Amino acid sequence: MDYRKSNAPVTTITRNMDKLTQGTGNVYETVIIVSRRSNQIAVEMKQELNKKLEEFASYSDNLEEVFENREQIEISKFYERLPKPTLIALQELEEDKIFHRNPELAKQK
Asked: What is the pTM of this model?
């Protein structure tokens, strides 16, 4: 997923709990779903960032070269300005982009 195009807010906003729990009917279940999706997003973003920063890796750096790498600093700042994974996951939940199922409920049916 391209997180740069996400329309998730960059800051925390107040959410309507009734709207968030429509799919599950349970606040705690919704929190678990969002936290698991948030962890997935965080791992993907970290892998993407590490992949981009590997291009700048030099194993024979001296101290002066480390401070001169502006491109690496700009990439890191860009990722810091992106919405946090939790906010992206909440936005996906509101837009019904997250598929979830409860195996306990499936057993009962």
From this structure: 0.80
